[in-house]
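Aim 2 progress. For TolC family protein, the working sequence is reproduced below.
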Amino acid sequence: MKHFKTTLLACMLLAAANRTTAQHVYTNANERDKKPVQTTPLFNDSTTNIREKLVLLAMQGPLMKETDHDNRIADLTLKKAKNSWLNLLTVSTNYNDQSFAKKNPNQNYYVYPKYFFGITIPVGIFFSRGAEIKIAREQAAVSRNKQDDAKLQLRSEVLTQYEQYHSMGELIRVQSQVIEDEQAVFLQTEQKFRDGTVSLADFNMASKALNNEIAQRIKLQMQQNVYKVELERYIGMPLEEALKR
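Predicted C-alpha cells for this construct:
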C-alpha cells in the first residue's frame, strides 16, 4: 500500500511538471506567433507626395514631349490651311513700251495701257478652302485629345509601376525576416548535428529551407529592379535622383 502511494505521488508530480512545461512552451509559441510584423503602410502622406512627384516628372519626360510636337505640327497644319488660298492666286503684269506718237495721221491707232496687271482666282477656292480649314482644325483637336489620353495613361502606368516597386520592397523586407528565422533554425540544427543529436537528413533539410528563402529574396529583388528600370524610363532619370528633388 505504501509503495502504491509513493508511485501515485510520483505520477502526480510528473504530470504537474509536464503541464507547466507545456504551458511554458505554448506561451512562448503564442508570443512568437503574435509577434507583429512591422510593415510600412502603402498609402500615407509621404508615399502620396512621392507618387505625385513621379507623375509630374513623367509629364515633363521624353514620352510626353512627343505629343507636344504632334500638337505643334497640327497647329502649323491649320495655319497652312488658312493661308493656302494665297498659293492659288496668280498675279501677272505686262509692260507696253509702244510709243503713243502718231506716225501717220490718217491711220487709226489703238491705244493700250502702258502697264497691265492681272489676278487669276480659281473658282474652286471658294468651295474647298473652308473644308480644308475644318479638316485641319479637327486634326488639331484630335491631336490634343490624344495628348490628354496619353497623360491619363502615363499617370496610370507611373502609379502602377511605383506601387509594384514599393510593394516589392515591403515583400523583400518581410522575406529578410523569414531568412533570419530560417538562419536561426539552421544554426541550431547545425550545432545539434555537430553534437550528434540530429541526423544528416535533418541538417540538409534545414540548409535547404534556408537556401530556398534566400533564393526567394533574390527573385523579389530582381523583380523590384525591373519595376525600377521601367519607372525610370517614364520619368527620364534615375529614381534616386527623382526622390531627392
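Residues 96 and 173 are 95 Å apart (CA to CA). This observation will guide construct design in the next reporting period.
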